[in-house]
Structures are given as C-alpha cells and as structure tokens.
Design a protein that fits this description.
Layout lengths: L8 H8 L3 H9 L6 H13 L12 E6 L1 H9 L1 H16 L3 E6 L6 H8 L4 E7 L3 H8 L5 E4 L9 E5 L1 H14 L5 E5 L4 H14 L8 E3 L5 H14 L5 E4 L2 H13 L9 E6 L12 E4 L2 H20 L8 E4 L2 E3 L9
Helix pairs in contact: 1-2, 4-5, 5-12, 8-9, 10-11
C-alpha cells in the first residue's frame, strides 16, 4: 500500500502473485480474464479496500432504514458491523452516505425527489417491510437491499446465505450425534425465515414442528424466559440452533439456570458470529456471517448498477448471497 494507505493495483497483484495487467483487466472489465480468477481478484480488491472503478467520487448514496433497523443498530452489533463495512467502502470511494429513517409521513414522493438529485448514486435499503418495498420498486432509481432480499426480484440485493448458515449449524450438531435439535426462532423477517428453512433442510423428514420455539423479541432476556418455559414443559431436545447469537446467549443462561450443563446436557449453536461469543462461558459455537462484506458489496453493487444505467445497459436484478463459516467453540459437544 502507498504511504497514504490507499491500495494500488500492484498491491492486489502482489497479494495474488499475478500481473498488474491481469488485475486491471479484471477490475475494469476491459479484456478477458477467467471467471474464477476475476472473482478472486475482485474479492481480494474488496478485502484490501481498493476503490473499484465507477466514476462516482464525490457523490452521495442514500441509506434508507426503517425505525426497526435503527432499534437494531442501537442494541445489536450485527447491524453495526454491516454498516461499518458499508461506511469503509464509501470512504474508500469518496462517497458520502446520507441516512434517512423511512416513515410513512416522509412520503415516497419526498424519497423520490431526494433520490433523483444529480449527485445521488442511488438508494440502499435496510430492513424495510414488503409494503415499503412495493413503493420503492416504482421509483425506478438504482437500488440495492442491504442484508435482505426482494421476493419478486425487482430489486438487487446483497445478503449472507442465511439458509445455508442454519444448515451448517444443524448438520454440525447432527454429526455430533444430535437428532432432537430445537430451533430458537424470532419470526417476522425474511432473513430469519431463511434460517428456519435451513434447519428444516438439514433435518429433512426428522424435522419436528414442535421443536420450533418462537421468541417475542431480539434480546437475551426474552430468549432466556422462553427457554426456561420450554425446559419445564416443552418437548425433549439435546441441542439448540438459535436464529441469532443474542438468542443463543439467552438459551445458555436458561439451560444453566435449570441445573443442566452446556454442552454436556444441551449443546447450543448461534448464527451471526459476533466477537463477544468467544467470551461467553462456555464460548459460543456460531456460524460467522461476513457482516462487513455484506455492507461493502452492497455499495459496490449499487455503484455498478448506477454505472450501467448511465451507459443505458439493462441487466436483470441480482441477488448476491455470501457464504458463511462455522466457528467451533465449547458450547457444542456430543449428544448425551
């Protein structure tokens, strides 16, 4: 890297052991590079915070979030890490992020007017409901959903592969001999529904609907209260896959409060991979979501979408899903 801290094409080439010309062709799209190599180059560029071509320096991107997303931002580090990845990518490309809280009184027309400003690249949406997505689809401005997906595929999106994340967690427990695996759920969001589907995929015909336990809030306290009731009166189980790390925290506390051990009596696996999981007792096994990459790639996709629109190139909306990985710690062990 240069003295200013900016990543150069030569830095990427040195990291990968290839020529600067190959990196330049892959990043600009001018000239042929094998797909698998081009993908590696682009991924490395993003990892090294290289400003991908887009001619958007000095412009603004409108980050439109629901009030629910802002509540998450205040109490859940997952959203914080996604937005941090987004902020770092914006800074590397000299793009200003303007945050707007979407309320009914804001009005879709006001949002349209803001999005049509000459210096605006487009919209980035965080945790908006389907009714609002319907309105945004009609705006016809470059738009990307951050950590979400459009079921009708009108809008492009970047999200972790939540379904495979839950499948990874469940299959890990199955390999440890568990068959009665409870899914601790917080219903309401499509991303979490995908995690429930991954649990169902892994268990197949052994899937028992009685083992889906709903929690009424995204807090460890709510999860603890619900799990205490299940441990008293609910179905038998030997392991828990929690829809998020914060729910897994509550599950562990509830199991231990009932005089049981984790993982001796009940194993617990979370999904998110938040750093504080390593400091729990026992340390939390979790599926790590590439949170910063979700934010960074969302901005890259928006910039590319805006560039193609200016060039009058029409492409279908895209859904980018990022792979996740399981982090093995002490909270998951063999079935009793």
């Amino acid at each position: 890297m240069t003295g200013s801290g900016r990543t150069r094409i030569s830095d990427i080439a040195n990291r990968l052991g290839i020529s600067t010309a190959t990196v330049s062709r892959a990043l600009s799209g001018n000239g042929y590079v094998r797909d698998n190599l081009a993908n590696r180059i682009r991924a490395t560029a993003i990892e090294m915070n290289y400003a991908l071509p887009g001619n958007v320096s000095g412009k603004r991107a409108l980050l439109v979030a629901s009030q629910e997303a802002m509540i998450d931002f205040q109490r859940n580090q997952f959203t914080t890490y996604v937005l941090e990845g987004l902020r770092e990518r914006a800074a590397s490309q000299d793009i200003t992020l303007d945050t707007h809280i979407f309320r009914a009184e804001l009005g879709i027309e006001a949002l349209r007017e803001a999005a049509m400003a000459e210096d605006v690249v487009g919209l980035m949406l965080v945790t908006l409901d389907d009714a609002t997505l319907n309105l945004v689809r009609a705006l016809e401005v470059p738009t990307v959903l951050v950590n979400g997906d459009d079921p009708e595929m009108w809008l492009s999106s970047v999200t972790p592969c939540n379904r495979s994340a839950a499948m990874l967690a469940t299959r890990h427990l199955m390999r440890l001999g568990h068959r009665r695996i409870l899914f601790l759920n917080r219903p309401g969001r499509r991303t979490i529904r995908r995690r429930l589907e991954g649990w169902q995929d892994a268990l197949g015909e052994a899937c028992d609907p009685a083992l889906v336990v709903d929690v009424d809030d995204w807090t460890a306290e709510a999860a603890q209260t619900r799990m205490e009731a299940v441990l008293r009166d609910g179905p038998d189980f030997t392991a828990v896959v929690a829809a998020g790390d914060v729910l897994a925290t509550g599950a562990i506390v509830a199991v231990q409060a009932a005089g049981l051990s984790v993982p001796g009596d009940v194993s617990v696996v979370g999904i998110d991979g938040l750093p504080q999981g390593q400091y729990m007792s026992p340390a939390l096994t979790s599926v790590r979501i590439p949170m910063e990459a979700v934010g960074a790639l969302s901005l890259d996709l928006l910039v590319e979408t805006a560039r193609l629109r200016r060039a009058r190139v029409s492409l279908p909306a895209r859904r980018i899903e990022l792979a996740c990985e399981i982090v093995h710690r002490a909270s998951a062990g063999p079935a009793p």
